[in-house]
Amino acid sequence: MTALFPALRTEQDKPALRFGDRGLTYAELAAVAGSLALDLRARQCSRVAVWATPSLETSVAVLAALLAGVPAVPVNPKIGERELAHIVSDSAPSLVLAAPGAELPAGLAPLTRLDVDVTASAEAPLPEEPGDEAPAVIVYTSGTTGPPKGVVLPRRAIASTLDALEDAWQWSADDVLVHGLPLFHVHGLILGILGPLRRGGTVHHLGRFSTDAVAKELAGEATMMFGVPTMYHRIAVEVGDNPELASALRGARLLVSGSAALPVHDHQRITEATGQQVVERYGMSETLMNTSVRADGERRPGTVGVPLRGVELRLVDDAERPIAASDGETVGEIQVRGPNLFTEYLNRPDATAEAFTDDGWFRTGDMATRDPDGYVRIVGRKATDIIKSGGYKIGAGEIENALLEHPAVAEVAVTGEPDDDLGERIVAWVVADGEPPAQRELAEHVARLLTPHKRPRVVRYLDALPRNDMGKVMKRALDA
């Protein structure tokens, strides 16, 4: 029964959390989270929903639930009625934790509401924490079919991932992390809030991302930044003409991008302006973090680095036979095994069994190649990003990166659609930077950079790509 956050018991006046002009030291955080944890235990809660606004209250609520041994179910504040009804029915929380004054949707009305007080002054004893396999957080993931599934993450998975990242990123108590990520997802909540707290460091949450806010923080105390590609794209567009932003980024110890692939040309623009090379990592709700480019390793744009400490990773073919080749070319599905894995899909033993092989490997559904030195390069999702055209298996991500090197392409997504001759033809969905280029020009551009069979056969122009809250392009919406 190891404490997830030892600093709550040892640190006192050191800053722990800051949201805007509101913050808590470790002593204050221990008092308010400890008091709430004791309340949750006294109420004998089975699970608690957390109205996960980007706030001190959300952070305290989740931390208190972890201290109490009560699984927390973060709820996206932008959630729709149907999805909320499913999550409430499926997870059956005892109550909902929210910031005072927060307006909750009708779907949460049947639950007892408990407002989170972050001003409590009385020191409360921290409860004895449960074992490593106890459920800690239940995160709902949008599946390809059917309603979202509740991913049950045990305390063991959180601890092992955060400790593996300590090793990979040389993450220490001296680091101050800045980010503006949402707190209903593993990236913003587990890595971005619980990560610094486990290290005994500090996190400054922006509330809302802006390049000005990032520049201010990194020019001050912040040493690390977490972001998604949408954020880094905005930085890449601006940094060449913004000396203050460039200077602030130049002084950062580590810039980390995740949740989706960061286009190579955005990597290049940031490096040209700052000398910094952004680190990418690869994870999922079900696995937390699997791989990362190491802080002391080669920064290779377009890759997600090597397996983290304790994580086994292999590529398999369509028959689930391990692929021995590490040639940077052979595409296979990623399977992983290790202490970072989730326990189960809540109330879905069928889906849980389907997700694992008989010997415990988790089927990620992500397709990748592996370089001779072990670096992993994601090429897409098995269902949506692998295009089988003319007898070739083609990764959409490779074509997207090539198209983004064209000066008239601002954003792009690549999908496949049925073709009588090829099986599937490659379709590029392009947001143009200025005058849209001709389809032939883009096809020739890809054929020159890659190979002719990877060129788009169809180009469709859009004003914007559909994205979710984490900045990922929703390709199924394009196909629809």
From TrEMBL:
Classification via NCBIfam families: PRK07787.1
Family: Belongs to the ATP-dependent AMP-binding enzyme family.
PANTHER family: ACYL-COA SYNTHETASE (PTHR43201), ACYL-COA SYNTHETASE FAMILY MEMBER 3 (PTHR43201:SF8)
GO biological process, one term: fatty acid metabolic process
Signal peptide start and end residues: none
Domain AMP-dependent synthetase/ligase: start-end pairs: 9-346
Name of protein: Acyl-CoA synthetase
SUPFAM superfamilies: Acetyl-CoA synthetase-like
GO MF terms, alphabetically ordered: medium-chain fatty acid-CoA ligase activity
Stretches assigned to the AMP-binding enzyme C-terminal domain: 398-472
